[in-house]
Design brief:
The chain is mainly beta and 115 residues long. β9 and β10 form a beta hairpin.
């Protein structure tokens, strides 16, 4: 059984920073891509950033230059450093991991950017 647990969300002022973490645990042979998605109220879930097992990254245009994704393979953990946050970044952020060719999702963590 695999577990995905996110942490690090919260309330931050515009221009501020937050760091999200996502740890996978349980019966894991290999983790392939890991990534972060977000869903704002009444909007579709969208990809924010993704990182392969080899470290290649992919970002949504709206976050390029502000967000950085990284992973620690020894800890089965992926991070999302979010800088220069804007009100439009407000959403529930979900961690996704492809583990042993199955798709796993975290429960989501709320990020609110507001003054």
């Amino acid at each position: 059984q695999v577990r995905i647990v996110e942490s690090g969300g919260g309330l931050v002022q515009p221009g501020g920073s937050l760091r999200l973490s996502c740890a996978a645990s349980g019966s894991i042979f290999k983790i392939y891509n890991m990534g972060w998605y977000r869903q704002a109220p009444e909007k579709r879930r969208e990809l924010v950033a993704q990182i392969t097992g080899g470290g290649s990254t992919n970002y949504a245009d709206s976050v390029k230059g502000r967000f950085a994704i990284s992973r620690d393979n020894a800890k089965n953990t992926v991070y999302l450093q979010m800088n220069s946050l804007k009100p439009e970044d407000t959403a529930v952020y979900y961690c996704n991991a492809v583990i042993d060719l199955y798709d796993y999702w975290g429960q989501g963590t709320q990020v609110t950017v507001s003054s």
